[in-house]
């Protein structure tokens, strides 16, 4: 430790945007990550742990024209190399695969879980270090790999405690969007900037609505503060093509409503029921009241049919729709019906590097937000196919697809559903009445621990007994053990049920309280048995 | 992802001194950390996860007279603050306790596990990122807290698979050493430099032997390469005092040998047996052939008696010996006899910040080193009491004691003892004979996974079937499933026992091999049952 003579006292603070995690915050996350790893492992994925530090060059954020790597990463110069903390798990995977490709199986299925770092402005609930939990398949060109990730994502959500019906996995394909661009006359290298603006505009559909997106596709949009976002400058016809894609779900639903009224008009109640269920499903909640299993598949096929018409004439667009149909067919064969995994053209996902199927897991149950309003929980995981990432290193295109789970959001969701293991149980506290008897107290905790019971001796200053009970309270201790001179003489101990005690304290009068009905005197030899009995009673 | 046009291809490499961990390397570590956490939790310790990044100021490595923080840490400037990666778990704990002390229980028992970073020259087996696994008690002044950590360390080693008898926890006390310094006339602020040299010299006993230490205590020492290390400049008398301490174990043993010959001379065979066992134990292996439980206690008391004589006249020295006796008494009462936890004056531990008891866990079994020579496995954990670390922040002295487990060394030890779970089982591989049947293959793996069996469909290019079997081999797959046109027509599948197949291939002739006795044709409906049967057979 460096000498700090005469220096002012250092501040005891985390750096801005970082935080500490205590007790159950840590163990609940560990437990969830272990559950996720078990599913990934069953699917044949292997663990990979890369170092937190990478060269900036390998991470791919290096901009040669500035003195420092660009914003977004924590980077520093070390022996003339620029090093950085990883900002996600995908860039290190690309580096690992390029570095070790001769020793790794192909395809290479790997999972990775751990912290990543972002040098971004911190905000409420936004930290500069957070957990990611990824699974990727590298070297598998077929959409069977994408379908597998979607199936695994569904299994994972159920394994950690999200019920079927409480989540929906929405799948789209970038190729369909590229086909739409082509049909709208936005193909070609010279239109890259416009395509970028269109992509970002579509990604904002949820926030801006159709009219906002329409403005961004055209001349641009002025927001409430007066700031202007430049538009893609498309003409009316082009905008209509893109909006037909953006509105696909609504259009399919409108068509279904027309079909429904026709079916009712025709008196065909069976078809009408199917269409009603289809419309329910189209509301994106993944739930419908019909008992027919094929409703989801019907929605998927309706949407594919619509998309196929939309991209007519674009080879890549047609290929995208074919792939979507293949994915749903594969998933359906394994029992993942469209009430769990649904085709949804509104899923774009912002990242520029996706090249094929993209997918997103949304939790469909409602929670109340900070203002007490109900809202959907929203997205907890997402991913897609990115076939170009390894190419940076090797020059060869390597197909890859993968998903990233937002660990903190998923934990929050489980918490909201009451699916996390109950508040961590505090330890049994053996209090200290007589410091000279420390060996006896230690022997008591040793017995309890050997019986698998979490327990500890009070190791603070024992002079003030009240402080010991306050400590037990702060530790959320279920039971306190008390033994002083009298007890040792008579070979007994006092066992205090702190949970029951707290309940009595809430309701009892002082006179009743003095009766101490939550405290038991038992023979010393019955320590473990009596503690077990009380703990069992508290758990009931 | 930044555009890399015209830029040269980035190198796919970890930064110097960093590495990747694959598959079982990751999962075995996770498993061990979970086992350790369970013991820590049972002892009442709470998890704490601090961020990887701290301010240099809080870490305490800042030297105001240089432009950059000193060597040893990875540090960089960010918005005029110097940030750094934590280099251990203790400095962040001191910061956390100072920052949150009003909300934390006192005493605060916490454990922390995760990577730390050192900006040091990498070497073989020495990496710049490695795991630590710490448990500390903050705010408990009594040596009962130190004793508890020693007991917990013993339980932890046994929980992860180190047998009793294969480890020894050695305990010493800095106060005894301070007493020795005082007796040798090395007390006082003006002797701080000398004390530092003495401390470092003693810490090198294992490597340099007594004569090397003697040289460092005196004028200095020239090593084989001719480099000179400056000595402490003590006179003969001072050197003798320090060496009596350094040699304490040997002196106690010599005294025992004298006692032994006397006992034999007197024909007192019972005492002779006790002393023989004592001598065995003194060899620091923690093992003796006697069936007497009190041998260890006897050794501890012999050593304490010797140390007490050595520090006569030094108040702090006597206090140190008293504390050692108290620790062994507490541990003995809980059943931790001295064949597990032994007083050993040769334990110094280099870190300057220890102020009281210090302890070290050594594995006593032999392994063969890289040159095939047997050697003791050595230390896997260590720690001690440091009462000054929090004071840096608050000005108030806060007593603390804790242990750090060298995760990688402990894993290596378990590996050497064959105590790690067996080589991770590869997945059952469902091969692809007919790409159009992908949904059928996916259905097979879905059945296997739902039965809890790790399995995957081959997702590479299926054209060359040999590649699929090579892949299964690279995945250490136990079983391959094969189904083509004939099989689908007859509603059967081929199940290939790859473990048995490999054994046959080793010994069989080509003709026998062609008989394929390790391959079974079963009805499609028997997939899961037959795979289970084969896996069970392989496990036997």
UniProtKB/TrEMBL annotation, chains A, B:
Gene Ontology BP annotations: histidyl-tRNA aminoacylation
Annotated L-histidine binding sites: 88-90, 118, 132, 136, 349, 353-354
InterPro entries tied to this protein: aa-tRNA-synth_II (IPR006195), aa-tRNA-synth_II/BPL/LPL (IPR045864), Anticodon-bd (IPR004154), Anticodon-bd_dom_sf (IPR036621), His-tRNA-ligase (IPR015807), HisRS-like_core (IPR041715), HisRS/HisZ (IPR004516), HisRS_anticodon (IPR033656)
Enzyme Commission number(s) from the entry: 6.1.1.21
Organism: Yoonia ponticola
Main location group: cytoplasm
Protein's UniProt name: Histidine--tRNA ligase
Lineage: superkingdom: Bacteria
Record family assignment: Belongs to the class-II aminoacyl-tRNA synthetase family.
Gene name tied to this protein: hisS
An annotated GO cellular component: cytoplasm
Keyword list, A-Z: Aminoacyl-tRNA synthetase, ATP-binding, Cytoplasm, Ligase, Nucleotide-binding, Protein biosynthesis
Residues annotated as domain Aminoacyl-transfer RNA synthetases class-II family profile: 83-427
Record lineage: Bacteria, Pseudomonadati, Pseudomonadota, Alphaproteobacteria, Rhodobacterales
MF annotations from Gene Ontology: ATP binding; histidine-tRNA ligase activity
First-level EC class: ligase
Reaction it catalyzes: tRNA(His) + L-histidine + ATP = L-histidyl-tRNA(His) + AMP + diphosphate + H(+)
Cellular localization per UniProt: Cytoplasm
Transmembrane segments: none
Assembly: Homodimer.
């Amino acid at each position: 430790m460096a000498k700090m003579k005469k220096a002012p006292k250092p501040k005891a603070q985390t750096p801005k945007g970082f935080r500490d995690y205590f007790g159950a915050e840590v163990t609940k996350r560990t437990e969830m990550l272990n559950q996720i790893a078990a599913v990934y492992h069953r699917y044949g994925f292997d663990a990979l742990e890369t170092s937190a530090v990478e060269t900036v060059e390998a991470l791919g954020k290096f901009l040669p024209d500035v003195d420092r790597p660009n914003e977004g990463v924590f980077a520093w110069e070390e022996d003339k190399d620029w090093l950085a903390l990883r900002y996600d798990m995908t860039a290190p995977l690309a580096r690992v695969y390029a570095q070790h490709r001769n020793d790794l199986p192909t395809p290479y299925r790997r999972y990775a879980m751990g912290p990543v770092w972002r040098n971004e402005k911190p905000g409420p609930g936004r930290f500069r270090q957070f957990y990611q939990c990824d699974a990727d398949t590298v070297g598998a060109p077929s959409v069977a790999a994408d379908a597998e990730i979607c199936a695994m994502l569904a299994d994972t959500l159920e394994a950690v405690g999200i019920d079927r019906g409480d989540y929906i996995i929405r799948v789209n394909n970038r190729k369909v969007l590229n086909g739409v661009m082509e049909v709208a006359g936005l193909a070609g290298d010279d239109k890259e900037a416009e395509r970028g603006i269109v992509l970002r505009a579509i990604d904002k559909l949820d926030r801006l609505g159709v009219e906002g997106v329409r403005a961004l596709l055209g001349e641009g949009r002025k927001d409430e503060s007066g700031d202007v976002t430049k538009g893609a400058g498309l003409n009316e016809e082009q905008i209509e093509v893109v909006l037909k894609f953006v509105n696909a779900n609504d259009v399919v639903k409108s068509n279904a409503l027309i079909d429904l009224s026709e079916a009712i008009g025709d008196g065909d109640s069976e078809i009408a029921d199917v269409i009603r269920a289809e419309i329910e499903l189209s509301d994106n909640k993944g739930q419908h009241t019909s008992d027919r299993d094929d409703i989801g598949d019907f929605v998927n096929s309706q949407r594919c049919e619509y998309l196929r018409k939309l991209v007519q004439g674009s080879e890549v667009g047609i290929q995208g729709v074919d792939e979507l149909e293949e994915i749903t067919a594969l998933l359906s064969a394994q029992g993942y019906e469209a009430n769990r995994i649904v085709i949804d053209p509104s899923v774009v996902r912002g990242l520029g590097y996706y090249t094929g199927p993209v997918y997103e897991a949304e939790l469909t149950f409602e929670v109340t937000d900070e203002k007490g309003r109900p809202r959907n929980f929203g997205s907890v995981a997402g991913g897609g196919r990115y076939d170009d990432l390894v190419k940076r290193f090797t020059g060869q295109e390597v197909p890859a697809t993968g998903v990233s789970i937002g660990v903190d959001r998923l934990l929050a969701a489980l918490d909201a559903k009451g699916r996390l293991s109950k508040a961590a149980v505090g330890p049994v506290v053996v209090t200290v009445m007589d410091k000279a008897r420390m060996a006896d107290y230690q022997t008591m905790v040793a017995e309890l621990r050997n019986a698998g019971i979490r327990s500890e001796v009070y190791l603070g200053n024992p002079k003030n007994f009240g402080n010991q009970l306050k400590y037990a309270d702060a530790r959320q201790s279920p039971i306190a053990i008390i033994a002083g001179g009298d007890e040792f003489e008579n070979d007994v101990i006092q066992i205090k049920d702190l949970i029951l005690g707290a309940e009595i304290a809430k309701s009892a009068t002082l006179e009743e309280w003095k009766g101490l009905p939550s405290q038991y005197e038992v023979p010393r030899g019955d320590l473990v048995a009596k503690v077990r009995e009380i703990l069992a009673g508290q758990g009931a």
